[in-house]
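Is NAP placement plausible here? Inputs below.
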Amino acid sequence: MSAASGALGRLVIEHLRTRTEVVAAVRDPGRAPQGVQARRGDYDDPASLREAFDGATRLLLISSPELHTARRIGQHLNAVTAAKEAGVGAVAFTSFLGAGTGATGMTEAYHATEQAIIRSGLPYTFLRHPFYSDAFVPRIVEGEITSSTGGRGLNTAFRSDLAEAAANVLTGEGHLGRAYDFTGPLWSYPEVAEALGVPYREVPDAGPGPMSWINAQIRAGMLEQRTDDLERVLGRPAEAVVSRALRAVSEHSNCLDN
Ligand SMILES: NC(=O)c1ccc[n+]([C@@H]2O[C@H](COP(=O)([O-])OP(=O)(O)OC[C@H]3O[C@@H](n4cnc5c(N)ncnc54)[C@H](OP(=O)(O)O)[C@@H]3O)[C@@H](O)[C@H]2O)c1
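Reply from A.M.:
I modeled the complex. Tokens:
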């Protein structure tokens, strides 16, 4: 598994360690998750990737956090080439929704990587992720919930569910040659406010930046695509954002009680 020291990688390892032998490929072995074998595997160092992937029957290629698209594509292609040279049995790649057709913009690097994996001839599974719910759970501030989402639906999913789904794909059968469009249960900020019993107020965007861009996408209904892929691979429903928000409120009020 590459990029195994990140938030997603650590969650996947928690699911895999009891099911199979795991090797964590990390750019800094000092940051490797405890309890599994670690090897150095830096996306900018092809030789390290070849050694890290040696002997792997399955590789989880976790996308790089690099923001520069060309550099990010170069890193992913280094990993695909290394996987091919190391004779990896199959690759699961954490892609992004829309990457099957989106050759430009936000999905450009994901699209280029999917295409490179297909060209490599390696057996593959694409795990197309939505935005992670973890960054979107509404919080009550001064007695209300606000957002700039126009009350539209969001198809986000929690890292924890996406990690379990990745572990199921890596250890299960019948996933090769497939592209999964993983989405969580659709939700909206006004719905969560109603469930929490607080008012909802639409506010203007805070200003230019990644969140404003995402909010514009949400207002245009671009996050309302929904599939059953995640719950089918999990074998259960994915966690709803409203459940996490309710739990956060209850834990917070318990803290206040103590
Ligand atoms: N769908 C979404 O909403 C969303 C949100 C955020 C990110 N993402 C994507 O999903 C990926 C996983 O998410 P995450 O939450 O686990 O991200 P994260 O916690 O930021 O972890 C990123 C991982 O990438 C590793 N990394 C960075 N540069 C590397 C390099 N040159 N070679 C090898 N590994 C390198 C980091 O290693 P170190 O520990 O050494 O830094 C870390 O393990 C991200 O990398 C990003 O591509 C998706």
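Short version: Residues 1-129 form a domain with the Rossmann fold fold (CATH 3.40.50.720).
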